[in-house]
What does this fold into?
Amino acid sequence: MTLGFEGVIGQPQAIRLLTQAIRKNRIAPAYLFVGPEGIGKCLTASLFVQRLASTEDSPEQRARIKKRMEQGNHPDLLWVEPTYQHQGQLLSVSQAKAQGVQRKALPRIRIEQVREISQFLSRPPLESPRSLVVIDRADLMAEGAANGLLKTLEEPGQATIIAIASSEAALLPTIVSRCTRIPFYRLHPEALEQVLRSLGYGEIVDRPTVMALAQGSPGEAIAAFEQLQACPPEILQSLQHLPRTPRPLLELAKTIPQTLDTPTQLWLIGYLQQFYWQNHSSSQWLQPLEKARQALLSYVQPRLVWEVTLLAIARNQ
It folds into this structure.
């Protein structure tokens, strides 16, 4: 039995480790769920905290707890997500999207949010055996926030903290050393297809570029598909079949940053790398795109980035 983890597909090692911890009642004060994006870490964390919040081994109680957690009103759970700063407010990715906020940088876990964690853990749990904190995308933590979290991990009190990250490299080694590591891995093609079909995204299976871009991650496959659907068709068509003269290339370089925010431009670069490789089998087109990615991450002016990139690719056609 997997003690409530039946919905997780393709992560037997992670489920085995967490199931053993529950059965032996040896719950660590801090866990690090680490692995690529979109492969079930958040789902597993949600199911794990539901189990830890239960005072009895009852599916009915876990169902009630799940409902309250989904509604965001369980007093003993704090779920922390990366945020944008906008007009003095911290907005999650979904909130920023709903409000139409133009995103020019990646979201971050901020010092204010770590202070909130500390305040949350300063009181004893009200209903559960322990207080529960989940930090989604902990690898997007600002330096000040990371140092603050380290202090919290040293004395978590009657709590369990779960940090979710795509890589250990972006985390302080001292944070990693204080967490019990739970590894997650990319899904095999059969498991990937099973998850996509079960979620109603079977049509993605027939899109080779999206499937290749996903690299075994259902979440990345769905995100890529939705990004592809949202990308203006005229921009996508022009990038897939680049003009051969400078003037339309420069117009395209102007249009892209006017139409797409920075995270979408970064996604588009990854999509184009996969598309060009599948359709042209040439690495000459990949290097300019990788330079473009690094330039955007370094906050170089996007129009200039695209001008240089598109002209370089055109020369190699």
Summary: The CA atoms of residues 109 and 141 lie 4 Å apart.
